[in-house]
Amino acid sequence: MATSMYSKVDEYGFERPESFDYNLYGNFLSQYIGVLAKRAKRWGDLKHGDRYKKTTTLKRFVRKGIPSSEREAVWMAISGAETMQRRSNLQYNSLKKYMENKTITEMIKIDIPRTFPENIYFTNDNILPQQLFNILATFAHHNNEVGYCQGLNYIAGLLLLVTKSEESSFWLLKALIEEILPKYYIRSMSGLLIDLEVLDEFVKKNEPAIHRHIKGVGMPWAVASTKWFICLYAEVLPTETVLRIWDCIFYEGSKVIFRVALTLIKIHRQQILEAKDLGEMVDCFRKMGQNFNVVNCHQFMIEVFKTPSSFPNRYLEKVREKHSSILSDK
Amino acid sequence: MANRTSAAQRPNGSTQGKICQFKLVLLGESAVGKSSLVLRFVKGQFHEYQESTIGAAFLTQTVCLDDTTVKFEIWDTAGQERYHSLAPMYYRGAQAAIVVYDITNQDTFGRAKTWVKELQRQASPNIVIALAGNKQDLANKRMVEYEEAQAHADENGLLFMETSAKTAMNVNDIFLAIAKKLPKNEQTTGPGGSGQGRRLVEGDSGAKTAGNCCK
């Protein structure tokens, strides 16, 4: 009936999946728009001059979602990207001039048309793909330890779709990789290997039955979750949900990735336990983004901050350290 | 449009004979067409710009060989060098591997040789390895000679075909050739279960869900 009310493409140019339930979405949206409007008004009072300062009020607000008009400014402020940009004696435009390593530029060039090939903004003009190339190639030359890691194309691509600014996207990418996230993207990908073990431990502790069943069918975490860490749920969950997650990652750091992982697992407990073999299990994880409880980003984020209720950084660091030394002993 | 051949159809429930299940892994440099080969084989589709695989993907497809149904559990891996540290968990216990290179890019052939070496050293001793020179539709930009690859395959006891995920050339054939070469008699294997495919009984949950990722 009302399916034609909503475009098949979301606000950021991504096609909605075939199974998308437009009626449910309509119900959710009519409420959510009200929530957004109310919050947008209150966001106005939070600015100090033209800046956002990290305060407990701002943290609470960020958890409830940053209005899309303010996302670039707030992300720049809470991620530390703005400070980094201000204090750096490097200018993005001068960094951009150094792209002499052909191995790197060729590698990135191949991945540009493979980044969001179904997104209308990436396929319908040449500006965005060129900007994406500039960001990735500039960063790869700027940070030798990381260079170019596949997966960063999706992060930079989504940053670009949201901020519509090549320069802001560069600084946000730099803040994420160098300040906020563990060493996921370096050549050894050690941070990823550690966090896959950490995830295993958390699931075992929080959801022992699920953990047993997943081990039983023989699914390695790397299969289901590499993209969770590497792409920060881009290309995995619906765009609006991903952006709400990123709002919190920029403010609170990488522990949010685990909160989301544990919430996804909790929400899909039944389906996971019913998966009879590896194929069904992988399929179950692959389809999590289509679940309406995940599309409903507002409710989903409320769940995320209950899972678990308290999650101190210090605890996460301790578990990471433990697995780091286990892995280096191997 | 070349779609699935009759040889690559799913069992229809009336299948007689035995069902064997094998783990197959695809390895090779980034952007040589690993995911495209799988997409062609499993869904009969081709995308000009296939999204890069982050981590790995898992799909299944069945082929019928005389009285045997061979179910492939396919692990499609990320090609970029740095994802290499994750690869052993996918080829561990695999009974078959397709090592893919791009015939228009000599470096990818070099990388394919390295993968073959690694598999011979680290994977199950009886693993069936096929070498696939993909993007055969771009033969006018060829940088790797057919004879060179064939010679390498002969020296190392590999199956070899040039393939095109785009035109479907040799895609089903290479999987079929592997299926033919895999041992289908049930034998007990040593710890780790490497070597033989698990035999599934008709009506077994594993058999019923064959191809469930093919939707």
Automatic annotation (TrEMBL), chain A:
Residues 65-253 form the Rab-GAP TBC domain. GO terms for molecular function: GTPase activator activity; small GTPase binding. Keywords: GTPase activation. It comes from the Eukaryota. PANTHER family: GROWTH HORMONE-REGULATED TBC PROTEIN 1 (PTHR47219:SF10), RAB GTPASE-ACTIVATING PROTEIN 1-LIKE (PTHR47219). May act as a GTPase-activating protein for Rab family protein(s). This is Growth hormone-regulated TBC protein 1. It comes from Pyrocoelia pectoralis.
Automatic annotation (TrEMBL), chain B:
PANTHER family: PTHR47978. GO terms for cellular component: early endosome. It is an enzyme of class 3 (hydrolase). Keywords: Endosome, GTP-binding, Hydrolase, Lipoprotein, Nucleotide-binding, Prenylation, Protein transport, Transport. InterPro entries: P-loop_NTPase (IPR027417), Small_GTP-bd (IPR005225), Small_GTPase (IPR001806). One of its GO terms (biological process) is protein transport. NCBIfam families: small_GTP (TIGR00231). Residues 185-215 are annotated as: Disordered. GO terms for molecular function: G protein activity; GTP binding. It is found in: Early endosome. Belongs to the small GTPase superfamily. Rab family. Its EC number is 3.6.5.2. PROSITE patterns: RAB, RAS, RHO. Its main location: other. This is small monomeric GTPase. It catalyses: GTP + H2O = GDP + phosphate + H(+).
